[in-house]
């Protein structure tokens, strides 16, 4: 037994990828329940999953008792499994997101190791492991973690089928594509299809596209994905279909929604910033892409990157999470380049390290100013000093690069950013966000009484109260409620109080929304 234990310890000391997976688990799971539900999309998704579970309804998603047509149901199903296992809490809502983050890292390692090289796989995993944005997204109760994993799995499995012609890979690819469609909609299938067709044509693998097995491929997708879309269409009398496809897909692509527009250059910027720190090498990668075309797996990763960035660059609505399905593939391109430099097949200049240092100094400055400007977070401004870690890491990596080369510099980046991401995501970020207006005002609300809202409120109130909030649309309705029930409490925004000048109300609480311009207020009857 002692000898076996010693063998395990020896393997851990010598197996780099084992340590990377252990670090990934720590970064993804540590403290995921510590941050309160406050971000709007997180709260809506978590509560919608709960409402479906409590109604024993697997078909129609609702939020606050009303149809929620923003997304298909896959993430709701996984959240419900976690609720059964861990209870109704933030940890459960985020558990499977973190798990799929770990699995995304694993499949990136597995397929890159299988079809490129061990070195490329190691460095590709490292790129994802130190990306704060990648880790942050997979610690949230949103559909993107599921979408990213299943798109990545679908493309990898199709590639494996193209190389090995084993039917199991084609079936796995089809199932993954169908589940991606159930995670965010047909856009997942369309973009994945565009990549695979482009890659197959570029490789002159025409037999892949014109084979009876493609009929099987699409049949599996239809069998897995279509039934829910048909059932929700029937159950909602077509309302889900209309809202989801036209408002939340076509309209979002055609024009900016909720103020999330901008120039096409925003999306490439989102990807570059999202994959910091290793994305500072992207300029060097872009100058030396010729060898990338000779390796089919790397070529496919280039196509994924181009398709997703191009599509969302021309989309009217632009958000940082939209192009995230290309992150594993950009990581592979960066990992491939880093491995070539380390093995002496290519070279890299110093400027990426200087760029990283400058960006980290700017982030430290922005964090210090941002926490200082926000009234609620001024006492916790010291948390901004966490950003000193990336600054020191960037400086150290440059020093190691000068003295010992890129490999040691990369080790410094992995170590420094792992420490930073753990402290920031698991301790610093939750400590700051505990001072949001929902957490501060919840003690004033009573779970056994009806809570009201005037026009708008933070959906996290639903999650913590676990009951519908009745929304009032005009001042007359507010007057009636306060007259009939003087104990009633109404949630709203400070900017809307001017509309209630004729209403005799008393201000119970006023709390500025963190890092937003809005201010949450609670009012009751004036007595």
UniProtKB/TrEMBL annotation:
Keyword Oxidoreductase: no
Main localisation: membrane
ArnT-like N-terminal domain segment(s): 47-233
Cell compartment(s), UniProt: Cell membrane
Transmembrane stretches, start-end: 17-40, 81-109, 115-136, 145-162, 174-202, 214-232, 263-285, 297-316, 322-339, 351-371, 383-401, 413-433
Keywords linked to the UniProt accession: Cell membrane, Glycosyltransferase, Membrane, Transferase, Transmembrane, Transmembrane helix
Membrane protein topology class: Multi-pass membrane protein
Pfam families: PMT
Cleaved signal peptide residues: none
Name of this protein: ArnT-like N-terminal domain-containing protein
Organism: Niastella koreensis
């Amino acid at each position: 037994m002692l000898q076996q234990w010693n063998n395990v310890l020896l393997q851990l000391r010598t197996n780099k990828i084992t340590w990377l997976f252990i670090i990934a688990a720590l970064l993804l799971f540590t403290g995921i329940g510590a941050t309160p539900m406050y971000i709007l999309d997180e709260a809506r998704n978590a509560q919608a999953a709960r409402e479906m579970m409590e109604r024993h309804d697997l078909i129609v998603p609702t939020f606050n008792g009303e149809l929620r047509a923003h997304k298909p149901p896959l993430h709701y199903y996984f959240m419900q499994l976690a609720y059964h296992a861990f209870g109704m809490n933030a940890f459960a809502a985020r558990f499977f997101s973190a798990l799929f983050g770990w699995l995304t890292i694993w499949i990136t390692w597995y397929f890159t190791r299988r079809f490129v090289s061990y070195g490329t796989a190691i460095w590709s995993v490292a790129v994802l492991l130190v990306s704060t944005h990648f880790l942050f997204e997979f610690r949230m109760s949103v559909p993107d973690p599921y979408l990213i994993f299943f798109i990545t799995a679908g493309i990898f499995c199709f590639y494996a089928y193209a190389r090995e012609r084993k039917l199991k890979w084609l079936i796995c690819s089809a199932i993954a594509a169908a589940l991606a469609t159930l995670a965010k909609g047909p856009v997942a299938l369309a973009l994945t299809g565009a990549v695979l067709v482009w890659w197959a044509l570029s490789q002159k693998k025409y037999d892949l596209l014109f084979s009876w097995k493609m009929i099987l491929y699409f049949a599996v997708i239809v069998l897995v994905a279509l039934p829910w879309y048909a059932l929700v269409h029937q159950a909602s009398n077509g309302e889900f279909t209309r809202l989801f496809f036209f408002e939340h897909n076509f309209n979002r692509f055609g024009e900016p929604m909720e103020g999330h527009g901008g120039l096409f250059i925003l999306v490439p910027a989102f990807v570059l910033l999202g994959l910091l720190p290793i994305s500072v090498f992207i300029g060097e990668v872009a100058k030396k892409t010729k060898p990338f075309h000779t390796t089919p797996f790397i070529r496919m990763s280039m196509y994924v990157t181009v398709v997703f960035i191009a599509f969302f660059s021309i989309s009217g609505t632009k958000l940082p999470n939209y192009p995230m399905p290309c992150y594993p593939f950009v990581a592979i391109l960066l990992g491939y380049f880093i491995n070539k430099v380390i093995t002496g097949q290519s070279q890299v200049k110093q400027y990426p390290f200087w760029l990283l240092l400058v960006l980290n100094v700017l982030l430290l400055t922005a964090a210090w100013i941002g926490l200082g400007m926000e009234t609620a977070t001024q006492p916790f401004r010291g948390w901004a000093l966490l950003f000193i870690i990336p600054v020191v890491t960037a400086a150290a990596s440059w020093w190691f690069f000068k003295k010992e080369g890129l490999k040691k510099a990369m080790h410094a980046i992995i170590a420094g950013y792992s420490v930073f991401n753990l402290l920031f995501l698991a301790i610093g970020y939750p400590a700051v966000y505990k001072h949001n207006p929902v957490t501060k005002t919840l003690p004033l609300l009573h779970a056994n009484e009806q809570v009201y809202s005037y026009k708008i409120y933070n959906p996290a109130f639903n999650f913590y109260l676990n009951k519908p909030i009745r929304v009032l649309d005009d001042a007359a309705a507010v007057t009636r409620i306060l007259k009939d029930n003087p104990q009633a409490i109404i949630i709203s925004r400070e900017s809307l109080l001017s509309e209630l000048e004729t209403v005799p109300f008393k201000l119970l609480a006023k709390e500025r929304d963190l890092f937003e311009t809005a201010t949450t207020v609670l009012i009751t009857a004036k007595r």
